[in-house]
Amino acid sequence: MSSSASSLFAAVEMAPRDPILGLNEQFNADTNPAKVNLGVGVYTDANGKLPLLACVKAAEAQLVEAARARGYLPIDGIAAYDKAVQALVFGEGSPLLAEGRVATVQAIGGTGGLKLGADFLKKLNPTAKVLISDPSWENHRALFTNAGFTVDTYPYYDADKQGVNFDGMLAALNSAAAGTVVVLHACCHNPTGYDILPAQWEQVIAAVKARGLVAFLDMAYQGFGDGIQEDGAVIGQFVAAGIDFFVSTSFSKSFSLYGERVGGLSVVCASKDETARVLSQLKITIRTNYSNPPTHGAQIVATVLTTPALRAQWEEELAGMRNRIKKMRGAFVEQLKAAGVTRDFSFITTQRGMFSYSGLTKPQMERLRNEFGVYGVDSGRICVAALNEHNIGYVTQSIAKVI
Ligand SMILES: Cc1ncc(COP(=O)(O)O)c(C=O)c1O
Questions:
Q1: C or N: which end of the chain has fewer Cβ atoms within 10 Å?
Q2: Is 44 touching ligand 1 by the criterion CB < 6 Å?
Q3: Taking the CA of residue 314 as centre, how many other CA atoms within 13 Å lie in the half-sphere pointing to its CB?
Q4: Span from the CA of 402 to the centroid of ligand 1 (angstroms)
Q5: Residue 356 and residue 384: Cα distance in Å, rounded?
Q6: What is the pLDDT of residues 371-396, one digit of tens each?
Q7: Which one, of 314, 108, 313, 94, lies nearest residue 222 by Cα?
Q8: Of the residues 42, 106, 137, which should be mutated to test ligand 1's pocket, given the most ligand atoms within 8 Å of the CB?
Q9: Are 112 and 249 in contact, with CB atoms under 8 Å apart?
């Protein structure tokens, strides 16, 4: 077939570039030797590399040895993984777990957890609307739209206040229709770095309850805010309120296992019987999409979480990553001052997680990229977790030049 007009794909349009992945491509093609990638949300160590955690290395060695001794590989999902995720997310002794009221499945990263939940919700309530924060992780809208939902936003970021527009957020929730799915960032809000306080969560929970909304907590950064327990406390607040809700989990960041795509979806149900039915539906979605999740990364995570020595090592390494980001936040503010920037950037030290909404404008972000090879998102979002002792001086001096 030579004529393009009659070819099978003649009418296929070029899809828009993913804003972050597009930046990555541009970054990779950039020949500037001083280039710095603050676009993608990846934690890199002092040398700008993805760390291979010692706990991961040890678990992997243990698994290889066990497989050698056994002489065969496991074929499908790992029961220990689902239980370990539950214990991490809901707390070891949570009565919910004893009551069998949580349906947990392994998912292809946090993204997969969101997608499994979205597909299930679409079957459950096809006409429901989805609300995401304004702004939100750029994939939330696309993912829920792709699952067939109409996606709208609730106010979140207040640029003037450099914080959360909590009144606006609450008002939006209090006027949402029953059944509306509300996607909430459990901690380390992406992209703003601003979280709401426990007392504000109580108000969100009250609104969810009063309006009959469906809460979907996206927990992609557990341990990157204040600690594993601290960051997971919001889950306990929802549980205490007696609400049925969704939680997606990601280990991409907390285990530095970006490439393994290890995540999960947990659905809190009203009874053991309901849990069994929900679980059966989630399994159908998994079965008809990719049959079973891959085992390797999940085995590593399950081994670390269930082996006390490795678990302790993981918590230490996670704290190390968390504290290094905090240190970089402080250094960033100091070095901007040292570079002669008079604008106050101290708010950066109050933000949590990997990102900062820097307040830099689109033209400034473009200049940073085009003139200095410093890549961030046009919205001003930069990944603080990609700063290190070697690049921070160059980045802050470049910023000083574009301000
Ligand atoms: C808020 C949020 N949710 C979910 C994800 C997806 O996590 P994963 O990479 O494990 O799919 C990310 C990753 O950037 C994120 O920032």
A1: N
A2: no
A3: 27
A4: 30
A5: 7
A6: 999 999 999 999 999 999 999 999 99
A7: 314
A8: 137
A9: no
